Amino acid sequence: MENKEKGYLALVLHAHLPFIRHPEYEDFLEEDWYFEAMCETYIPLLDVYERLTSENTDFRVTMSLTPPLCNMMTDDLLRERFRRYFNQRLELAEKEVVRNRNTQFYEVAKMYERKFKRIRELYEDYYHGNILEGFKKFQDMGKLEIITCGATHGFLPLAVRKEAVYAQVKIAADDYKLRFGRGPRGMWLAECAYNPGDEVYLKANGIRYFFLETHGIIYGSPRPRYGVYAPVYCPSGVAAFSRDMESAHQVWSAEMGYPGDYRYREFYRDLGYDLEYDYVKPYLHQDGVRRNIGMKYYKITGKVGLNEKAAYNPAEAREMAASHAGNFMFNRERQVEHLNHFLGRKPVVVSMYDAELYGHWWYEGPDFLEYLFKKLHYDQNTVKMITPSEYLERHPDNQMIQPSMSSWGDKGYNEVWLNASNDWMYRHLHKGVERMVNMANRFPNADGILKRALNQCAREVVLGMSSDWAFLMTVGTAKTYSTKRFIEHTNRFIGLYEQIMGNRIEEKYLADIEWRDNIFSHIDYKVFSTGAQEKAARG
Amino acid sequence: MTSSGQLNNKNNKPDSDYKSLPESYGNTEAALLPRDPNWMFIYWEITANSKANIAREHGHDVFEKARHVIRVYDVSHSSVDGQKYFDIPAMIDARSWYINVQDGGRTYCCEVGLVLPDGRFIAIVKTNTVNLPTSRVSEVMDEKWMSVSTEFDKLLQISGVEYTGKSSGEVAKSLAQRWEMLRSVFSRASSWGLSSMSSQTLVRPAAAEKKFWLVADCELILYGATEPDACVTVAGRKVTLNQDGTFSMRFALPDGNMDLPVKAVSKDETDSRQISILVTRKTS
């Protein structure tokens, strides 16, 4: 069995949400993004890992859990609100089982009841309200490699000051250590956005590798000997793994993409709209407006109107997920065989996806992954699953290349985050960073309230840097919210900055902002100092 | 109810919040950002004080007499090439601009300034430098590579280079119907992309019989400024103004005539101005 494989598959799931937490409101719509992702993606993935482990199925997966997500997962307020969320859903699911007895929806109603019971069980009994415990457990077993991301998913190529790049990396690495008991080995650059040279700040924080979009390596110099099928070393010695397009398209493309199969669950027919108003109202937000509540009873069915959809059949959908997993595996086997022959070396196929694709958007995605892991383990020897760290241990010799600037956004560069809808942000963002750097340089040893104010300034600056705001403005839908968030963080920073520079810090004002934006409780504003950045750049 | 979803329904002018950010920071300064291999974004602030100093030195009407430009320097090999630059006409009060350059893979910096009637250049503010990516396969090969270089095209195909940049967009289109909402609300729609501006992507003709090839295309940028609270339409389509009243649009430019009437109506609707622009393109 040993070394029989002809190549490797590195599955990378990028899990991220912006930091959304509003203690000032009893009930806040955008917090649902997190609760939905918990119920549909993060906990179902842990459930898959739990089952595989209990069955002794070996697997390897790499996941980025971004610092904002880790901060939300461990936040007391959001924990309580999440409990409220899934308990409400469970209550509704239980009622629904009774209501749907002897109807065609009975099976799917049962499915939701099981699902929310299992979520409660995992969340409360297995992980005691902290699902990072779960992820850490699988990391410690060597099956899951958790990597980090810029502190707030900052879009690094649009930072003018390198102190900001250093701060994004350093804050993230420190946060990771706090949660997982060791430093991160890899980093997901937000949006895979790479600016040549920035990886020195990864190196300074002990991070050995990151990920690139295909053309980051293909357009690198000199030409990559193995295309995207082997990592390269940047001149600084940090490794870059690059995305395989074939496996990306397998999941995404219209002709052969899996999630569009007619047996899978239809996203747009949601109980939030289908149920009688008075019956569903307790499960809506306080404003009583009908919205998706995440429970859906129909399958895609075909190209028919939403009112002509057929009942969802969970067993049939799972079968399909198994069949798609088989197809995916078959294609990876052929791909790896072909590449092995062509390259004369064991290729590594890096399949990168948003984690939220699995479960939230493609409901059967976690089932697909579970079948894929099992099939890869039991049914073949051609492809071996691997984490980037394992790969680098086995194959430490790689070509040295300077990768090209790139991102995985539309058109491959920075336009999604820099266009007419959001370019107005950057003068404010850069000014905030510049002022933050100046303050960090000017106050090398602050304490007391000054230190608190400076730390809060650092929080506001990094929250403003979150690439999500620019992204949402481009996409247009949550534009109001994202605009509001960017302006709030900018203005809170300006308010604190003026108080600090005027030597008139108001404790009440500061305490209020600390209460709202409580991310990174251990932040140290000195990460923004020029000295810290220059030291890191020197290596 | 307390969230933006609600606010959105009640407030048709969500952008009004912009105004709560400072208009300016009181420093004459500029920054240059990379957008893609052929585009950069520059923003600047020039204080009244800086303007007054220039007017004192070069005449009170210097801002009317001189041409306002962004001088774009290619500083890739600064010591060798010396002063390699070109000027883009701009308006100093625009405060930001998109800059198109012919060559990716080079290093640029810019100065915003004035060109006097006698040709002298007054630099007002200078940006940082920016390295743009090349967006093509490197011509640098190591020895080892040489021996297998004939295989490289095939490797590129396998690696999916033909999808590069537009891959995500194409996938987006095909899945758009089903995933419309998903891409909008939740997280990283970037993995299947979205289209923000209608730029045409140049596509290299598929494996031509001969090696030599050429592609060229042309786009149109329309820009202007008015009172920030005015209502502006271009060819009947409403334009969103930047907070300072400037606007710019980028169009695909097909062959033929394009009529672009630009119309501004004041907030109280008592005043209006119109400028008509007719563009003709002929490709042969």
CATH topology of the largest domain in chain B: Immunoglobulin-like
Helix content of chain A: 40-55%
- Rg for CA atoms of chain A: 24 Å
End-to-end separation of chain B:
60 Å
The helix tally of chain B amounts to 7
Q: Helicity level of chain B, as a percent range?
A: 10-25%
Q: Mind telling me the CATH superfamily name of the largest domain in chain B? A: Immunoglobulins
Quote the average pLDDT of chain B.
72
Question: How many structural domains can be distinguished in the coordinates of chain B?
Answer: 3
CATH class (first level) name of the largest domain in chain B: Mainly Beta
The assembly state of the depicted protein chains is heterodimer
* CATH class division of the domain at 418-538 in chain A: Mainly Alpha
Annotated CATH topology of the domain at 418-538 in chain A: immunoglobulin/albumin-binding domain-like
Label the CATH architecture of the domain at 418-538 in chain A: Up-down Bundle
3D structure, described in words:
- The complex is a heterodimer of chains A (539) and B (284).
- Chain A is α/β, with parallel strands linked by helices and 539 residues long.
- Chain A is built from 20 helices and 9 strands.
- Among the domains of chain A are: 271-308, no CATH class; 418-538, Families 57/38 glycoside transferase, middle domain (immunoglobulin/albumin-binding domain-like).
- In chain A, strands 1, 2, 3, 4, 5, 6, 7, 8 and 9 form a 9-stranded mixed β-sheet that branches.
- In chain A, helix 1 packs parallel to helix 13 (365-378), helix 6 packs across helix 20 and helix 17 (467-475) runs antiparallel to helix 18 (479-501).
- Chain A is globular, with a radius of gyration of 24 Å.
- The mean pLDDT of chain A is 95.
- By secondary structure, chain B is α+β, with helices and mostly antiparallel strands.
- Chain B folds into 3 domains: 4-131, Immunoglobulins (Immunoglobulin-like, Sandwich); 137-214, no CATH class; 219-281, Immunoglobulins (Immunoglobulin-like).
- Chain B has helices at 4-10, 48-58, 62-65, 78-81, 143-146, 152-159, 167-185, and strands spanning 29-36, 39-45, 67-74, 85-89, 96-100, 107-115, 121-126, 130-131, 219-225, 231-234, 237-239, 246-252, 256-265, 272-281.
- Classes of the chains: A alpha/beta (539), B alpha+beta (284).
